[in-house]
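Researcher: I need the complex structure. Ligand is pyridoxal-5'-phosphate. Inputs:
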Amino acid sequence: MELADAYRRFTAGTHAIIDLDAYQRNLRALRARAPRSSALMAVVKADAYGHGAVQCALAAESLVDWFGVARIQEALVLRARGIRLPILVMGPPNVEELELAIVHDITLSVGTIEHVAAIITAARSCGRTSQLHLKIDTGMHRYGFHPKDALAASQYISHQAELSLNGAYTHFATADESDQLPTKLQIHAFEEVLRVLRSHEIAPRFVHCANSAAILTGMTGTTNMVRAGIATYGISPSDEVPVPNEFQQILSVKTRISRVFELEAGDGVSYGLSYRAEKREHVAATAAGYADGLPRQLSNTGWFSAEGNLMPIRGRVCMDQTVISTNRKAASGDAVCIIGDGSLGEMTLDDVARIAGTNSYEIATRVTARVPRVYVRDRDVVAIEHLLLGEAYA
Ligand SMILES: *Cc1c(COP(=O)(O)O)cnc(C)c1O
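Model: Output:
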């Protein structure tokens, strides 16, 4: 199937559109806000927060220095699709996949001595050196060496022929909150570890701590790389740390009206009949539901839109369908926007997150595999990825 045919076919139903120009602008804006000459890691874990890691990585490749993922499998997908830049797996590595990671030149994070030992074994058995970044737990209390164990761990690593200590980093727990004290304490603990390592002639090439929120608030410490995820997608880390105006949400989700009809006063809608029309009302059914990633909490609360006309959701969001209030002119086949950048009043990821009582990170990553992703650049469709069908068009 040609790209044009795939576009016709997939945009006739629920689909996501990813603006790669806006993604590249966001990446440039983040680099401009990072300390001078700092390397930039684009975090594309969780399928690029739902935006599609392969196409995002292809678009970012010329603008960034590293990619960051959470799992070895995510890194392998990028390698299989031709991504050559260094990739750091930030999560604890799956020990059954270490050899695959090493063979594909994937940099691993180590935060326990057991993982170091497993990597030595794996590196020996494939006859290669493994690149490591030392993860130090300065307060997040999730993964990483305790600061007091960091020196011994790095010395041990430095003595292994199969290992190369290429980086050291930590991760902030509260960089997206207005109280910066906990982040300052984490930076202090991290810099102290680096000082001790240096005094023992251990100076990893890449030292990094800042996520999007820390880049935006300037809490980067004395490091030479930053790791940016959420803000690259134009989404604010939190209400307290919003992205500046130059950033733009790159994701929109659209669907089409599948049936238009009228409710009479008193008619109920959808499971539980939780909405009842007060008077005659024009409504429409759409083929988008919570199995596409729309939180069920949008029931009777969220809205779809078309060119600035807001269309409130009536009744419960179902697994595969949602009913909206329209006007007389709506017709079957009409395109409607579910999530957009808000410029015409459409629901943004932040709006959806607020209604669902969660953060935008979760809403973006929830867009499911059956929603085809359409990638746009210079107003042209450049690629389509359909995870459920396992198909890609370019
Ligand atoms: C996800 C992640 C990031 C990116 O965080 P954002 O808030 O999305 O910028 C950075 N570092 C680590 C270790 C992560 O897990």
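Model: Summary of the prediction. Residues 7 and 384 are 7 Å apart (CA to CA).
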